[in-house]
């Protein structure tokens, strides 16, 4: 395919399928099916929504477009807000915890030979101030 044009409102939204996720939704905007070597995804998290600690082989860049959240990466916790972004390398454990308002962010990932996600039995909220 030479190009693809659409609107986010036309893309199916599904629940994030990582064990322990709550109030978190994903839309796959650009994928291999469009001929891309990367994927662009939009996430929406309800107030107090969570994507729990996990790892995967692919790299990702998360760009916050609405709201505020805490991102646990490795053994650190960062507060991110609209306009902030973070790069997370392959196999680095991470989680996203929404605050009081709806959270929206885009996530760009590369395709690897293994796209599986490994949930971790680890609660990063114990590190929160």
TrEMBL record:
<dbReference type="GO" id="GO:0046872">
    <property type="term" value="F:metal ion binding"/>
</dbReference>
<dbReference type="Pfam" id="PF07883">
    <property type="entry name" value="Cupin_2"/>
</dbReference>
<dbReference type="InterPro" id="IPR051610">
    <property type="entry name" value="GPI/OXD"/>
</dbReference>
<dbReference type="InterPro" id="IPR011051">
    <property type="entry name" value="RmlC_Cupin_sf"/>
</dbReference>
<feature type="domain" description="Cupin type-2">
    <location>
        <begin position="43"/>
        <end position="108"/>
    </location>
</feature>
<protein>
    <submittedName>
        <fullName>Cupin</fullName>
    </submittedName>
</protein>
<keyword id="KW-0479">Metal-binding</keyword>
<dbReference type="InterPro" id="IPR013096">
    <property type="entry name" value="Cupin_2"/>
</dbReference>
<dbReference type="InterPro" id="IPR014710">
    <property type="entry name" value="RmlC-like_jellyroll"/>
</dbReference>
